[in-house]
Amino acid sequence: MTPQTKALYVFAGIIGLLLVASAVGWLLSRRGADGGGATVQNLNARVRAWWGMVAVLGTCFAIGPIATLLVFAFISFFALREFITLTPTRAGDHLPLVAAFYVLIPLQYWLIHDQWYGLFAIFIPVYAFLALPVLAVFGGDTNDFLERTTKIQWGTMVAIYCISHAPALMILHPDAPPGQGQLLLLYLMLVVQISDVMQYVFGKLFGRHKLAPAVSPSKTVEGLVGGGLAAIGIGTALWWMTPFTPLQSAGMSTVIVMAGVCGGLALSAVKRSLGAKDWGRMIEGHGGMMDRMDSVVFAAPVFFHFTRYWFPG
Amino acid sequence: MIARLAGAGLVGFTRTLVGARAQWRVAPPTGQCLYFANHTSHLDTVAIWSALAPSQRAQVRPVAARDYWDKPGLRQWLSGEVLRAILIDRKREQADADPLAPVRAALDQGDSLILFPEGTRSAERLPQAFKGGLFTLANAYPHVELVPVYLDTLHRSLPKGALVPLPLPLYCNVNFGASLSRVAGEARDVFLARARAAVEAMA
Q1: Which residues of A53-70 are buried (b: 16+ CB within 10 A; e: fewer)?
Q2: Does A292 share its domain with A264?
């Protein structure tokens, strides 16, 4: 089976799932005069947003790696925009922020396009890390200098560096048949997002014990365990789209799910320390881009390097 | 045709850069409106313009400074053909000329307006004192809805004196408040303070 055929099967499966979800949402919204209440309306908004996201991803796969890179560059852009909007930056931060938005994002994604792995892997953690505070010096404002610089470095690492590891999966095995890298990316996104959805569903159905009430009030132990296991099961069953055996796929899914949970919790704490409940409002029902990508932020680099180490191709 | 395409492109560009999502605190009024907002960046005009619904956008014309928007090239074309801006002179050439004359002409023919009553950009989160033009127009056109608008992040987008003149893409909510009520015989300063407070209340 070629990677293209596999991708078609996967997308057919996703569309099937979304059709079921839309039908369930429609039936639920017909119960009662208020359209099933806020939970059902939120569910339906989420399902509609899912259709949009799947359409974007499907179009990327049809066009090719460059489209995928562009879309992820924009995801990084929107994620950084949300992060910096919530961060109380000052006039003196203008120059490093201009560099982050208009230089670092294009350069990091160009490095993926150029398949320059060595520089891709260290460019932001080394050179941007050092350059951002230097640029901030030109602002001439030393009040809270360390705090301000740290926040910009954090936003850059999270929104650009970490997220860029998802599309970087496409250049992980340059000698693999075309499309194989995109399947790895699809596998990562599917396991992460199914894990999020399953945790939400299991949490709503069986949630009793709060996992971290101060950080993420909607996360429950039951949701985490049930949703995580379900996502690992689905990830294992998708082994045929990856270079992994079923057992290896189970291991990789476990890594992705656990890293995703950690990302969700850590970034939720960051978000709350910035005084917000949602990162933004650009995706209806989901909040902002970062609310949808927080798990990917942690899962993508870990999955990338695990795959690179154990499956060097 | 080209102007309409450029308008759609401008809305898309503005939404991508700064979001510019409309937050209506009350139901949007249907009649002729005068939107008055805090002014902190050159993006303010297109942010409000992009946040309005297409039907509202078709009727609205920004009041803008001639010295910035009438530079030959892209700016002149955008302000003239796409935004249909009303350009006013901030520096009066003749002492007796009425700088509001083109604004009155637009209101007379039923256009809605976007106005920045501070007269100039400020770098602060909260608006400066309002100039008197808003009071004059509010009295002369009592049927026009006076809608306060607050732009929440653009003051951080392009601070004055920035080394590189590129706006930061910060997500901006365009908050629209309830129309200002009219108080018969209200003094100029009281009215202007009340108008400014209506904008500030959404900060």
Answers
A1: ebeebbebbeeebeebbe
A2: yes
Domain definitions of chain B by residue range:
2-200
Cβ distance of B153 and A77 shorter than 8 Å: no
User: Tens of pLDDT along B125-136?
Assistant: 889 999 989 999
Q: Using a CB-CB distance cutoff of 8 angstroms, which residues of chain A are in contact with residue B158? A: 94
Together in a domain, A107 and A123:
yes
Does the interface predicted TM-score (ipTM) exceed 0.95?
no
Cα B127–Cα B130–Cα B133 angle in degrees, nearest 5: 145
Maximum separation of any 2 CA atoms in chain B, in Å: 48
User: At which of A171, A195, A216 does a domain end?
Assistant: A171
| Cβ atoms B189, B140 nearer than 8 A | no
- The domain boundary residue, chosen from A123, A144, A171: A171
A94, A138, A282 member nearest B19 (Cβ): A282
Backbone dihedral angles phi then psi of residue A169, each to the nearest 5 degrees: -55, -25
* A194 and A218, same domain (yes or no): yes
Q: Are B195 and B148 in contact (CB under 8 A)?
A: yes
Both A235 and A302 in one domain: the answer is: yes
- For B15, the closest chain A residue by CA position comes to A282
Q: What is the pTM of this model?
A: 0.91
What's phi and psi for B35, nearest 5 deg? Answer: -85, 125
The parts of chain B modelled with pLDDT lower than 70 are 92-96
AA identity, residue A198:
M
Instruction: Please state the domain count of chain A.
Output: 3
Class of residue A259 by CB neighbours under 10 A (exposed 0-12, middle 13-18, buried 19+): buried
Instruction: Provide residues of B within 8 Å CB-CB of chain A.
Output: 19, 21, 123, 153, 156, 158-164, 166, 168-171
Measured between CB atoms, does A176 come within 8 Å of chain B?
A: no
Using CB atoms, which residue from A85, A95, A281 is nearest to B164?
A95
**Does residue A143 sit in the same domain as residue A101?**
yes
Which chain A residues are Cβ-neighbours of B123 within 8 angstroms? 91
Q: What is the pLDDT of residues A110-149, one digit of tens each?
A: 999 999 999 999 999 999 999 999 999 998 899 999 999 9
A126 and A255 together in one domain: no
Question: Domain B2-200, what architecture?
Answer: 3-Layer(aba) Sandwich (3.40)
Classified as helix, coil or strand, A88 is: coil
Contact A81 B170 (CB under 8 A): yes
- Per the structure, the complete domain to which residue A10 belongs is given by 1-55
Examine the domain organization and report whether A30 and A70 are in the same domain.
no
Dihedral sign of CA atoms A79, A81, A82, A83 in order: positive
3-state secondary structure of A9: helix
Strand order in the sheet with B86-88: B19-24, B172-176, B145-151, B33-37, B112-115, B60-65, B86-88
CA distance A80 to chain B (A): 9
Q: Answer yes or no: do A84 and B162 touch at CB < 8 A.
A: no
Q: How far apart are CA A236 and CA A125, in angstroms?
A: 33
